[in-house]
Every structure is written in C-alpha cells, then in structure tokens.
Amino acid sequence: MDDAGNRIPPLTDHFTDLHLHSTASDGARSPSEVVHQAARVGLTIIALTDHDTVGGYAAAVAAAGPLGVRVLAGTELSVRVPWGEMHLLGYGFDPTDEALLAFMARATVHRRDRGHAMAAALGRLGVPVTFDDIEAQATGAPIGRPHVARALIEKRVVGTLDEAFDRFLGRGRPAYVPKALPGVEEATSAIRAAHGISSAAHLKDRGSREALSALKGQGLDGVEVCHPSHGPATRKDIERFAVELGLLRTGGSDWHGQTVVGPSHGALGAERIPEEWVRAIDQAIEAR
Ligand code: AMP
Ligand code: ZN
Ligand code: FE
Ligand code: FE
Predict the structure, then answer these.
(1) Which residues line ion ligand 4, judged by CB < 5 Å?
(2) Full domain range(s) for residue 266
(3) Where are the alpha helices (DSSP H) in the chain?
(4) CA 118 remoteness from chain centre
(5) Is the CB of 228 under 6 A from ligand 1?
(6) Over the stretch 124-136, which tens digit does the pLDDT of each residue have?
(7) Residue 23 alpha carbon to ligand 4 centre in Å
(8) Ligand 1 in contact with 57 (CB < 6 A)?
(9) CATH number where 273 lies
C-alpha cells in the first residue's frame, strides 16, 4: 500500500476525474448515476471513458448540465503493443465522428464474438453460464469480462468478481479469451482525426521513457500519471517522462461503480489532477 492517497492535492477550483466507467460499457452505474455521484463527491469535470464506446456521453451531458458538472467526451480503446494489450484513452473528440464510431463498432462486434467464445469455454468446463446470461448483464453494452464475471456471480458459480477473474477469466485462466487488437497508430489516428487527444492508460512499470517515446512516435498525445494502480514512484517517473517528452498528463480513478474497490480501480474521485494539466489538455483539444 503506498501513501499516494494521503497526499494533499493542490488547491484548485476544479476537481477533475478523467477515467470513469458506466453501464455504457462494464461499469455498474448508469451514465446519469455516475454524473450525480460525481457531483455529490465534489467533482466538477469528468470524462466517461467507457470501453470502445461513447454511448454514455449524451445521457451524461444531459444529467451534468443542471449539476454544473462538465463532461468531456471520452473512451478507452484496447490496442496491441509489444507486451500485449494497452488501453488508450481518448478525450475531447467529436462524438459523432463516423470513422471513430466505426472503429468502436468493429471492437464491439469483436467483443460479442469473444463473448460467445468465453461462453463456449465455460460450457466446456461444465459451468452453467450461457451467452444469453452474459448478454443479460451487458444490456446492450460492448461485452467485457466483468459482464461474464457478473453472470458467474448471478449463477452462484463464484461469490465475487475477484474470484471470477482468479478462477476463470484472468489472463491464463481456463475461460480467458484474448482480444484481437488494432494497432496503436490505427487508434491514435482515429482519435486525432475526430479532433481528440489520446493518452496511454495505467502503464505502471511499462511506462518507461523508451516506451513512451516510441508511443509518441505512433501518435500518442498524453499519458495517464494518476491512476490507483500507480504508486508514488511510478507517478513521479511517468510525470517526468511526460514533461521531458512533451506529452500531456492525465489521470483518474478508473471507477467502475463497484462497491468494493481494488488495487486497479479506485473510488469515484479518488484521483484528482492539477488544473494546469486540464488546461493543457483543453488547449491541445482546441488546437485539433
Ligand atoms: P476486457 O476488456 O473484456 O478484457 O475486460 C477487462 C476489464 O475487466 C478491465 O477494464 C477491468 O474493468 C476488469 N477487470 C480486470 N481484472 C479484474 C478483477 N480482478 N476484478 C474486477 N474487474 C477486473
Ligand atoms: Zn473496465
Ligand atoms: Fe483500462
Ligand atoms: Fe478503465
């Protein structure tokens, strides 16, 4: 356990969380509920970064107006990197951009195929969870492993999300199915063409100077410094590399609306980023 959560944040007018999930992907709260809860904890700027979709944006914006909360368009794309899978956050893009929506639609179709493959793997293991059970959890959202985990809980195969990942869904476990992933440049250019900026999410110890420099060469605009999985040393290193390489700095709690928060997912508003970072992000978006 590091002491990152005990640092006193700088005094600012704004309290910003740029990494949140809703029921538009694998979060447990609706976009409107996320916004209301965000306002309740004092957040003034948020981005819903649902996996491979911007489907929650309109509802979030509608809920945010009367509460004085600003919602930045956001998403979290999965991309292929030399070490496997990386998550790429997109911000401030045109949420109606057809090419970006088509990119996300392809990922969503793939997630559905993968949902069938996970159901088949569970069937072979004798676990009574079908594709329909998974789809009932996703309720139209791009299917992710948390939906499968919730179906396993519903069927009382496991007691917790953690147990579902430990026994079945985690990398290398018997119902794990990898995603076929697009390349980094394909994703950064789709975000860029939609007038948005990209940021590499929760890189942890993969966030070396070399890796960030290579990603910048592939169109990356920023890097997530503040994330629950990053301890104080990781934050310090990644922030230094960002400044040296001219990358934007982003951060957020990665809240999924769960009541139990773990080492990779914080409580809503558990991370707050400096106003200076937000201004730089805004300026970069404005310039696109
Ligand atoms: P997917 O994109 O379908 O591969 O699912 C990955 C998502 O599963 C991540 O974004 C997390 O939200 C979630 N996840 C991964 N590991 C765990 C875990 N041990 N407990 C709960 N959620 C997890
Ligand atoms: Zn997620
Ligand atoms: Fe992620
Ligand atoms: Fe996330």
Answers:
(1) 76, 254
(2) 15-96+196-287
(3) 31-40, 57-64, 98-124, 131-138, 145-154, 161-164, 184-193, 209-217, 232-245, 275-286
(4) 21
(5) no
(6) 999 999 999 999 9
(7) 13
(8) no
(9) 3.20.20.140
Could you tell me if residue 157 is inside a domain? no
Phi, psi of 46 (to 5 degrees): -140, 160
What's the 265 CA to ligand 2 centre distance in angstroms? 9
Question: Ligand nearest 20 Cα, by number?
Answer: 4
Residues 184-228: pLDDT tens digits?
999 999 999 999 999 999 999 999 999 999 999 999 999 999 999
| pLDDT tens profile 109-159 | 999 999 999 999 999 999 999 999 999 999 999 999 999 999 999 999 999
Q: 256 CB less than 6 Å from ligand 1? A: yes
Integer Cα distance of 21 and 34 in angstroms:
8
Give domain status of residue 135, yes or no. Answer: no
The ligand placed nearest to the CA atom of residue 23 is 2
C-beta of 51 in contact with ligand 1 (< 6 A) = yes
> Which residue's CA is minimally distant from atom 20 of ligand 1?
162
* Bridge partners, residue 78, by sequence: 87
The answer to whether 12 touches 39, Cβ cutoff 8 Å, is no
Question: Is residue 207 included in any domain, yes or no?
Answer: yes
Looking at residue 264, its pLDDT comes to 80
